[in-house]
């Protein structure tokens, strides 16, 4: 483990905000008086417990940025450039609390995010050139963020994860709970419905200078130098996984060496295997949830 220690330290600092120990909020997932929304063997635990969540996060951010209203909220009301790891840590905390916490913790975490979003307001220019007001809690914005998230985690797991209990439909159906917690009206419950709802957003999506800035930032984030080679491999693989219409709006092209496509999928898989070895296959959030389930006699 000696050779992996520097990598492990930097990965933990990136994802958890600290190199040693487990954050208090993760340890608190062992508390609570019910099983939560999901259990071992669920599609959500399978998808969110794999290393494929790392490229999924990048794919989700690229996809979310294509809605001018969602992007305006990020650009105008977040510190993603000055404190990208802080924003990442907040997102990870919400995802894992909903995934592994009891129902009270999931509701509390989602309510906290929605209260923060209430002040995320302004105006944006839509793909049709019309200026519109927005709030991050607006139904169309919360729906787009949920769709982008679900698409990213499902597609990334299909590419780099293992089997999904119940298949893709089970994951979309189960994670609809998170959509409802965040105020999404009637979130999709099948893979086909997810794809149809994303296609319906097509006329509202746009590229442009703001999108270019986000793409440039995600292409070269201020990560520890030890992590950059692996991140570049993951970013290239995420780009290679996106549908053509999204690539066009993002101003991206599939990685190639002249006319030859690069083997991005395998390179990303190798990177994720190394990360998995450094971090371990069972994360502290899942471990805490299992302690709660054992205490309640549910495991």
TrEMBL record:
ER-bound oxygenase mpaB/mpaB'/Rubber oxygenase catalytic domain: residues covered: 45-257
Coiled-coil ranges per UniProt: none
InterPro entries to which the protein is assigned, alphabetical: MPAB/Lcp_cat_dom (IPR018713)
GO MF: oxidoreductase activity
Domain of life: Bacteria
PANTHER family linked to this entry: BLR2777 PROTEIN (PTHR36151), ER-BOUND OXYGENASE MPAB_MPAB'_RUBBER OXYGENASE CATALYTIC DOMAIN-CONTAINING PROTEIN (PTHR36151:SF3)
Record-given protein name: DUF2236 domain-containing protein
Organism: Kocuria sediminis
């Amino acid at each position: 483990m000696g050779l992996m220690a520097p990598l492990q330290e930097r990965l933990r600092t990136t994802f958890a905000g600290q190199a040693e120990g487990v954050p208090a909020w993760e340890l608190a997932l062992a508390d609570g008086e019910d099983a939560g929304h999901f259990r071992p063997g669920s599609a959500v635990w399978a998808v969110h417990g794999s290393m494929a969540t790392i490229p999924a996060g990048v794919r989700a951010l690229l996809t979310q940025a294509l809605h001018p209203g969602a992007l305006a909220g990020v650009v105008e009301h977040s510190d993603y450039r000055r404190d990208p790891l802080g924003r990442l840590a907040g997102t990870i905390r919400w995802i894992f609390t909903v995934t592994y916490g009891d129902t009270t913790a999931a509701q509390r975490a989602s309510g906290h995010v929605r209260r923060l979003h209430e002040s995320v307001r302004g105006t944006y220019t839509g793909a049709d050139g019309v200026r519109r007001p927005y709030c991050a809690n607006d139904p169309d914005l919360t729906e787009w963020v949920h769709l982008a998230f679900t698409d990213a985690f499902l597609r990334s797991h299909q590419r780099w994860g293992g089997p999904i209990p119940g298949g893709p439909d089970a994951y979309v159906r189960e994670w609809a709970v998170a959509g409802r917690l965040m105020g999404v009206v009637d979130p999709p419950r099948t893979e086909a419905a997810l794809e149809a709802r994303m296609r319906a957003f097509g006329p509202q999506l746009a590229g442009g200078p703001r999108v270019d800035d986000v793409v440039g930032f995600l292409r070269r984030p201020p990560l520890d130098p030890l992590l950059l080679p692996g991140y570049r491999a993951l970013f290239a693989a995420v780009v290679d996984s996106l549908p053509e219409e999204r690539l066009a709006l993002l101003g991206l092209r599939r990685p190639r060496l002249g006319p030859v496509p690069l083997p991005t999928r395998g390179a990303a898989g190798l990177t994720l295997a190394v990360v998995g070895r450094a971090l371990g296959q069972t994360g502290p959030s899942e471990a805490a949830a299992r302690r709660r389930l054992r205490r309640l006699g549910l495991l």
